[in-house]
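Predict structure. Chain length: 227.
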Amino acid sequence: MKVTYYGQSCIAFDFDGTNVLLDPFITYNPLAKDINVDALRPDYIFLSHCHQDHVADLVQIQKNSGATVAAIVETAAWVRKQGVPNEQVIEYNFGGTLHLPFGRVKMVYALHTSSTPEGDYAGVPVGYVFFVGDKKIYFAGDTGLTMEMKLLEDLELDWAFLPIGGHYTMDVDDAVKAARFINCKNVIGVHYDTFPPISIDSEAAKTTFQENGLQLHLPAVGETLAL
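Prediction complete.
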């Protein structure tokens, strides 16, 4: 079981041969200029919300791969409008759990906003918890710190993907609190350094997590980690 970081909040899981991509934003990310979008062939694509920096490469990647796209109802409607066939779109909502060949994916709360790249209403943002084999992985999406995260503390999460760039989402200090809320010591940071408002001091961030008994992983764009 592996994960590859493609910059911003775009990650790709390899769940023992099933490839799952989240929030595809690569082409317009200057930090991901060496990533070949046309080489990506996910089986599933999950969207946390519909802002441009999370969906910009969706259509191209889906067309190339034939991936099934999963999202909250209103974002799923936008996906269909982009020409993705209805049978390749899964819409669901908070409290819902998808039972897929690689495992289960539960949709959970996120505190943020959401609109389409055209500026239209796209529902609300979400996070996901993946239950794959004996692993439990939380992808927070774009979110501020919220008490709803405490609902996850009894899951005994193995990994959490948390935004750390501040300005539009949680910053490092709030991400430390979030890690405590969800009772997860292994954190992979996302949504940082892509644009000036979300630039961080990476070494200081790692030190802050370490001083709080937590481990912050900041893989390079294109780097793969074992989970």
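Summary: The first strand starts at residue 2 and ends at 5.
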